[in-house]
Amino acid sequence: MGSADSKLNFRKAVIQLTTKTQPVEATDDAFWDQFWADTATSVQDVFALVPAAEIRAVREESPSNLATLCYKAVEKLVQGAESGCHSEKEKQVVLSCSRLLTRVLPYIFEDPDWRGFFWSTVPGAGRGGQGEEEDENARPLAESLLLAIADLLFCPDFTVQSHRRSTVDSAEDIHSLDSCEYIWEAGVGFAHSPQPNYIHDMNRVELLKLLLTCFSEAMYLPPAPESGSSNPWVQFFCSTENRHALPLFTSLLNTVCAYDPVGYGIPYNHLLFSDYREPLVEEAAQVLIVTLDHDSAISTSPTVDGTTTGTAMDDADDFQFVLKGIARLLSNPLLQTYLPNSTKKIQFHQELLVLFWKLCDFNKKFLFFVLKSSDVLDILVPILYFLNDARADQSRVGLMHIGVFILLLLSGERNFGVRLNKPYSVRVPMDIPVFTGTHADLLIVVFHKIITSGHQRLQPLFDCLLTIVVNVSPYLKSLSMVTANKLLHLLEAFSTTWFLFSAAQNHHLVFFLLEVFNNIIQYQFDGNSNLVYAIIRKRSVFHQLANLPTDPPAIHKALQRRRRTPEPLSRTGSQEGSSMEGSRPAAPAEPGTLKTSLVATPGIDKLTEKSQVSEDGTLRSLEPEPQQNLAEDSLAEGEPGQVWREQRRLSSASVSGQWIPTTDWILSWKSKLPLQTIMRLLQVLVPQVEKICIDKGLTDESEILRFLQHGTLVGLLPVPHPILIRKYQANSGTAMWFRTYMWGVIYLRNVDPPIWYDTDVKLFEIQRV
Question: Which sequence spans correspond to the domains of the chain?
């Protein structure tokens, strides 16, 4: 009954607030205490009892009352932080205020007129409400709120275990408390693992939800990459003003990376015991990625600009702990047991991918550790699993992008390509053809599946997928026959005249594939008899490319075919083969699934910069060359950029805006197709293979492969070209993409309570599939 009474009293207070036309004095404690005095209202209750329409009505009709409510709630949090929350009543007041602010803040942020409210000082609101001399140095409300949350996250017997035998700590102890001794979990910079405490975990979740809500002002500003958009909430919280910034960053990181959702290896244990740690881990991951989202140019914060991740995490043990933790959690959805649904599946893999990206991007030492470690493959396999699983689902296009961006970042380093030669033996059930081979085979087979059977909105990613394959190709020692056939199938599909002529940049895909073949023939010929055999079998594709028609009637005929063939790529000619046992086909999104819109990603020329591999293995960055020299660069042919703009000029667009290719445009890139190496290989090997087949009456593939394995092209091929790597380079376009993606994930994943649902978000649109 008490619970029902307290809800009724709380609801009455809300109604009073919305119906009062006169401002209520800040000193009227009897009125304001109704909002936090009763203790039985959960966060779900607060969301149900404070409807959106009523918050907006107070905001419009009695703004001073809404301002006072916020101010009084922040004041209570500050008092709780200063006193140390010793009594149960104080703890409940802090939680009630925290829930109320979590409910109200998004409605403050959605109104541009209120946006400065938290950054102003409240008259008479010096630290103790003492009067005018304190107004001079009063903190803005936002700063008081953030510092109170930080203090409360390290409050003994509330959010951390007390180190004292006696519970009578003085208030001074709270201010002298060294939060580095109260880090929540063992791991980076902390060896002691505190006893798990359900109540502390739940209190942390409530405060982290409020912190995340404070940071979410970014959702109410439209995407603008040029603005540099620093988030003042994040910036202040991560600054030296907050003495808990580093211990909290470490606590969040350790909490995420130490989490083991499988538990004690007992099947179905997640059905028997509720896992109270998971909500905390999810919240920790979300707060972590938001604090790591900044523009380094404008950030002076010690926690996020790489120096923290540098100081908090800078030795091999720390790196190993973080890498193992992220790899273990990413691999969790792949865990297969003989008992269906017997292991718990986590849902926060998108936050983990953003976290991994941020750590690699900010901390180059960590990135090099990842690439040096064979554990990088434990990150690769789950990413390929997610990419393959999400390829038909329009609501997961953001997941597809971040997975590809991570692989693009890793592929810029030689070690990644070398690691891919490790045999792939873990049989994760995936809807891909069965093959025997290496992790490189897995990568290419999954990419082929995405390109040939993903949905249309993935087409902008094709350049990225093939750039990754180009980057690793000089290091791939032996591709399987299945993989070799997939690569040739892609070339066949991309080099049809109707596909080449149907868009201004489609021919880039052919250039990328030819570059893959050239790299493997020049640098890894010996182990790649499967690929050489596949090239010989499909030699007609290369001859057709060399003799590509450029006359207007042929162009017209190709475009007519395009209108009859709406699907750009099909599985025909790809010899699909049976899928892995236990796999399920990639499913489209359920109708009505919510998704958030994303800003466009920059083209591959903006995403990457070209580097040349020197003989000693070091990378030398290549300056973009002036227009006239681009023709001499064996790779410029496939690059967007200046050449591409020149090609646009050579073609013409019709009145309807539809792309129309011209003879000059086709000639401008056809002459640069890098076919010399492959043509030379065919010229030497085709007569030899034909002769063997006739002489020995061979029809058996294995005999021909044996011959090719022992063959050599030393001295017969053109001089090997330098290896060119396209390394990911940070830019404002991708920074903005990550920001919209990250907040979109956070928006959609916070449904209980639905913190931002139905508010006027500007960073992205909420759409239904």
Answer: 374-588+608-622+660-728
